[in-house]
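ok trying this again, last paste got cut off
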Amino acid sequence: MEGAAPAVKIQEVARRAGVSMATVSRTINNPSLVDPETAKRVWKAVEELRYFPNSQARSLASGRSRILGLIVSDITNPFFPELIKGFQDIAIRNDYEILLSSTNYNPARKALCVRRMLERKVEGVAIMTSEMDKQLVDQLAHRDVPMVFLDVGPTGEGIRHIVVDYTMGINEAVDHLLSLGHRQIGCISGPLGLKSAHIRRSAFLRSFGRYGIDEDHCLVGEGDHTGRRVSRHGTYVGR
């Protein structure tokens, strides 16, 4: 860009702080190895010169990307923005970047998401989707990439799961609506091929049973997590 100031180089920081380039590099990448007073001078020079380390060069030198992958189903779904924000806040606090991908429930796009993660050498992936093809999970596992799944997913070394208490959430939602005087309440469970959808549907019907309300007053439908299709009694209708 015309008129833009040239990027400050590490040599200039070293001269300003009166140390070697290696000391500047250690201060930025592994400050515990540097004398506190020396590190203070280096950081002062970094701030004065507005030096921004080359993250790609740092990754090459350290062998670590300091990138975490986050795969979600649909970034426009109101459920995900808060989740993404929390994930990013913690990552930044620990000096990590986020590589975010949205699958849009498309198998080809899922494969592309995983390929991007592997190309960028992510150090871990949070898979916040209802389903993920085993072949794609195996690609990550083969590269020893730790994974975290939301509620569903395979088991194995380097894999953890976040378990959602769907029953409690459904109970609280139904209790709230009934306390407002509503009696004809609907529930879109999600694809019944998913365990989570069955749990939500069953919890919804049991909630009505606790209040002695007949199931006929319940409007229970099966959705596809996109909001485009909802079925009741096996018939799909438009949004």
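PB: full thing came through this time. The two ends are 48 Å apart (CA to CA).
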